[in-house]
Amino acid sequence: MIYNYTAYTMEDGLIKGTIEADTEGEAKGEIFRQGYKLLKMSQARSLPGLEELFPSLYKVKTGDLVRFSRQFATMVRGGASLQRGLELLERETGNRVLKRVLADVRRNVDRGGSLSAAFAEYPKVFNSRFTSVVEVGEHTGSLAESMEQLADALAKEHEAMQRFKRTMMMPAFTMGASVAMLVLMMTVMLPPLLEAFESRGTDVPLVTRIATAIIGGIQDNMLYIGGIILILGIGFALVRHFPKSRYGLHVFLTRLPILGSLIVTREMAQFSRTNAMLLKAGVPLARSLPLGISGCRNLALLRAFTAGEESLIAGHGFAATVGSYSVIPKVWAELIVVGEENNVMGTTLDDLATSYEKEVENRLDSLISILEPLSTFVVGGVVLFIALSMFLPIYSGMEDLG
C-alpha cells in the first residue's frame, strides 16, 4: 500500500512525500530509519488499477513461474545472492504482478526474513507446495535443486493443461460455428425467403418446412425455453452449493465413459507428482500429503486421499485405506502399498506420476480421434441442412416459373 506522509528534519525542514509498505507500522518505521520526524501519515487514495479491475488478465501464469524458478535456480547455483537474483529477475520479467511481488519479496529478504516466508505472503502467486519446497531447500542448503524441481513439476502440469485446452479448442470452435450458422440461417436468412415463396403460392420442400417449424417453435416458446434454462442454471448452482449434492456430482463425473477416466487419471498424476517432488525434497509424508491433497479438485478423490491421511496420522498406514475406495485405481493402490512397505514412496510416486502423465496424453489423443470426426460430421450435417433449406425452395420456385 502507498502512504502519504509529512515529516520534518532540522536540515531540510518540512518534507512531504509518499512511501510504499505493507502496513502503516512498516511505513512509519522506514521513515524513522531515514532520520525523519513524522508529523502526519495517511493512506493514499487512488483509483483502482487495471490489475484490480481485470485480475484474470494480469495474474501470474504458470509459464511465468516456470521461467522464474529456472532462472532463479541458475543464479543461486552460480553463487548470486538472493537479493541480487530477485532484483535481476524483477527487472527482467514482463509480468506486472510478478514484478511487484518480487520487489516486495526482495524487501522482505533485505529485512532479514527467509525467502519461503516472503513467498508465503503471496499465496495467490506461490502456493503452499511452492513455499514448502523452498523452505526445505533453504534448511538443507539445496535451494537451487528445490527451485529446479519446482520448475520441472510446474512445466509438466502446464504442458498437460495446455494440451487439454488444445484438444478441446478445435471441436468447441467447430461446434460453436455450426450452431451460430444455424441460428443465423433460421432467424435472418430463411424467414424472408419463405415469405416470398408463400406469397407466390409455391410449394415449400419438406426440409424447409422442418426448418420453419423449428423457427416457429423457438419463437413461440421463447419464454418457456428461457425459464427452463434459468431453472437448470439455478439447479446446477444449488448442486454445487450443497456438499452432499456436489460430492454426488463429482462421483458421477468420475464414472462417465470417456471423460471420467480422464479426470481420475489427471488427478492421480498431479497428486503423485506433487508428493513425489516433496518427498524427494525432504518433506515427510505426513506433511506432503496435505499439500498434495490441497490440489485435488474432484471431491470423490479428495475424500479418499483425506481418509488415507487420517489413517496415516492414526498410525494405520496410508495405502490400505486409500485403496478401499472404488474411485482409486487398484494398480495405483497396490504399488503404493509396495512403496510404503519398502520405504521407497518417493520413487514409487515419481514412477506413477510419469506413468499417469503419459496415460493422460494417450487419453487426450484418443479423445481427439473421437472429437475431430464427430465435430466434422456435425458441421457437415449443419451445412447440408442449411443448403437444402435455402436452395431447394429456390430450385422449386425456378421450376414453377419455368
CATH class of the largest domain: Mainly Alpha
Class by helix and strand content?
mainly alpha
Low-confidence stretches: none
CATH superfamily of the largest domain: Type II secretion system (T2SS), domain F
Walk me through what this model shows.
- This protein folds into 3 domains: 45 residues, Ubiquitin-like (UB roll) (Roll), CATH 3.10.20; 96 residues, Type II secretion system (T2SS), domain F (Receptor-associated Protein), CATH 1.20.81; 227 residues, Receptor-associated Protein (Up-down Bundle), CATH 1.20.81.
- The chain is built from 18 helices and 3 strands.
- The protein has a 3-stranded antiparallel sheet with strand order 2-1-3, covered by helices on one side.
- α8 packs antiparallel against α9, α9 runs antiparallel to α13 and α17 packs antiparallel against α18.
- The longest helix is centred in the middle third of the chain and has 57 residues.
- The radius of gyration is 30 Å and the shape is extended.
- The N and C termini lie far apart (80 Å).
- 24% of the residues are buried.
